[in-house]
Amino acid sequence: MKNIKISIFGSILLVLLMNVIVINYNYMESLKVKDKVIQELEEENGYYLNEIINLEKELQAEKNKWTSYPVYVDGTFKSYTDRKMITDTTSNAFKIVSKARTNKGIYFIDNMPCIACSKFYGSVGDELRITLSSGKTFHAIVVDTKKENELINHAHADGSLIEFIVDTKTLDKKYLQAGSLNGLYYGKIVKIERKNKND
Predict the structure, then answer these.
(1) Distance between CA 145 and CA 121 in Å, rounded?
(2) Whole-angstrom Cα distance, residue 191 to residue 161?
(3) Distance (Å, whole) CA 147 – CA 182
(4) How much of the chain, in percent, has pLDDT values that exceed 70?
(5) Is the model's pLDDT at 14 over the cut of 70?
(6) How far apart are CA 120 and CA 154, in angstroms?
């Protein structure tokens, strides 16, 4: 009888010991899983952190490519002038506009409309990035500059900050009648940026 009690007690101890072993094993396994998850999260977070840092660098590099200039009038009226008005064959304006091609009456170089503007915003050959109140942004190339004594706050008396170079024979009649290309480039001019020469 005594041996039977010892045998039962031993079995109970064995069961308890096995449970302890199983619990300990499961605990160790859970720690391994936890460590693995933590490592994966750290790697993932590190990846996204590097992506954010790289994106910030790219944005800063893009920002450094451009110089922003103040706009003193709304520039809603966007006048035009016929390419034939650029007559001085020795000028840079004549040389560069000679490379332009028309699309629906507007002269373009490298898909950028040709414009004239104040020297305050750019010189002949400069690329401008123009942002409108409509949210649209477009790039333009300066092919002629205006005399400051003819301008008010770097704009014509009609309020136009930029003047498109066109072929009046093929330009859409609605723009000819309006005297402005605001219908095509709609909105106030809220920002003018010049691309830096070294880029």
Answers:
(1) 9
(2) 11
(3) 23
(4) 75
(5) no
(6) 7
- DSSP code string of 25-83: HHHHHHHHHHHHHHHHHHHHHHHHHHHHHHHHHHHHHHHHTEEEE---S------EEEG
* DSSP 8-state symbol, 16: H
Reduced 3-state DSSP string for 77-95: CCCEEEHHHCCCCCCHHHH
114-144: pLDDT as tens digits: 999 999 999 999 999 999 999 999 999 999 9
Q: Which residues of 136-164 are buried (b: 16+ CB within 10 A; e: fewer)?
A: eeeebbbbbbbeeeebeebbbeebbbbbb
pLDDT at 1 over 60: no
- Output the six-digit token pair for 104: 């629906």
Tokens of 5: 């009690």
Q: What average pLDDT score do residues 179-196 get?
A: 95
Q: How far apart are CA 195 and CA 199, in angstroms?
A: 7
Would you state the pLDDT for residue 147? 84
pLDDT of residue 56: 54
Rg of the chain in Å (alpha carbons): 36
Distance between CA atoms of residues 66 and 178, nearest Å: 32
- Phi first, then psi, for residue 81 (nearest 5°) are -140, 150
